[in-house]
């Protein structure tokens, strides 16, 4: 059974965008120019987004139209002991879009953004496992290639959080390593250098129906000293197609 356009569980709704199999050019098209600019200015300019290369994704997947909200992430946090949540999955700093009140996490109604924004990488992973237990589908973080494919081909349909970096499932590496002419279903390095996150158009350059990502590595563990780390989810049928990645 394929996931629906809107994933419903209890009082919660998550809008999904179906991504068909296809090819795209992954990376920064002006990668070499970015390397020169970075060298001259000592300012990151995208040299870790190359070399650009063709990536093919051979399976359909469903990606959430927007990042997970603070309200929904609070529901997940409330399934845990507060001490566990604060140790591993979230930081309640001055930028957080939620707070702990009378032993329960709640979204800050006065916040300018509805999205969970001080989430650890482990928190994103744990949320996906929690949600998977409540819906008849597989749920996980998107791989970097899936995230970029969705942004570059369906970006006008997706919503991006203000100043929000989004966690990906695969580990970060400083430079792409394409396999031959076409890389098929890439899942990143097997050994961690850092956790992967991608920047929203606030950090990147947005064009109609297109997004150039601004990739970065981060430790992904609390305490998190900013309000810029969130995530969206990928939803897949329970029965895994032979070409789909976990």
Structure description:
The structure is a single chain. The chain is α+β, with helices and mostly antiparallel strands and 246 residues long. It has helices at residues 31-41, 70-77, 82-88, 121-132, 144-154, and strands at residues 6-9, 12-19, 22-26, 53-57, 61-64, 98-101, 104-107, 137-140, 165-172, 182-184, 194-199, 206-207, 210-211, 215-218, 229-230, 234-237. It is 20% helix and 28% strand. The longest helix is centred in the middle third of the chain and has 12 residues, at 121-132. The protein is globular, with a radius of gyration of 18 Å. The strands form 5 sheets. A 5-stranded antiparallel β-sheet has the order 1-2-5-16-8. A 4-stranded mixed β-sheet has the order 14-11-9-15. The model is unreliable at 200-212 (pLDDT under 50).
What would you call the quaternary organization? single chain
N-C termini distance: 17 Å
- Would you tell me the overall average pLDDT? 82
Judged by helices, strands and strand pairing, the structural class is alpha+beta
- Write the H/E string, N to C: EEEHEEHHEEHEHEEEEEEEE
Strand element count: 16
Largest sheet: 5 strands, antiparallel
Task: List its salient traits.
5 helices, 246 residues, four-stranded mixed sheet, 20% helix, 16 strands, alpha+beta
Fold blueprint:
Layout: E1 6-9, E2 12-19, E3 22-26, H1 31-41, E4 53-57, E5 61-64, H2 70-77, H3 82-88, E6 98-101, E7 104-107, H4 121-132, E8 137-140, H5 144-154, E9 165-172, E10 182-184, E11 194-199, E12 206-207, E13 210-211, E14 215-218, E15 229-230, E16 234-237
Parallel strand pairs: 4-10, 9-15
Antiparallel strand pairs: 1-2, 2-5, 3-4, 5-16, 6-7, 8-16, 9-11, 11-14, 12-13
């Amino acid at each position: 059974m394929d996931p629906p356009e809107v994933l419903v569980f209890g009082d919660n709704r998550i809008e999904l965008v179906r991504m068909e199999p296809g090819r795209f050019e992954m990376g920064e098209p002006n990668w070499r120019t970015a390397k020169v600019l970075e060298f001259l200015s000592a300012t990151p300019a995208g040299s870790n987004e190359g070399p650009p290369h063709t990536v093919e994704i051979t399976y359909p997947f469903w990606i959430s139209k927007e990042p997970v909200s603070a309200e929904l992430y609070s529901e997940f946090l409330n399934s845990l002991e507060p001490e566990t949540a604060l140790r591993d999955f979230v930081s309640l700093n001055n930028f957080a879009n939620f707070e702990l009140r009378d032993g329960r996490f709640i979204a800050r109604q006065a916040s300018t953004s509805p999205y969970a924004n001080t989430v650890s990488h482990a928190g994103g992973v744990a949320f996906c496992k929690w949600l998977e237990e409540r819906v008849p589908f597989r749920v996980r973080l998107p791989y970097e290639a899936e995230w970029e494919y969705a942004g570059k081909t369906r970006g006008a349909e997706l919503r991006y959080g203000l100043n929000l970096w989004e966690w990906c499932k695969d580990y970060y590496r400083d430079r792409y390593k394409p396999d031959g002419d076409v890389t098929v279903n890439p899942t990143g390095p097997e050994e961690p250098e850092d956790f992967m996150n991608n920047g929203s158009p606030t950090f990147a350059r947005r064009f109609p129906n297109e997004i150039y990502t601004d990739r970065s590595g981060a430790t992904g563990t609390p305490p998190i000293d900013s309000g810029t780390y969130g995530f969206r989810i990928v939803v897949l049928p329970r029965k895994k197609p032979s070409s789909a990645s976990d």
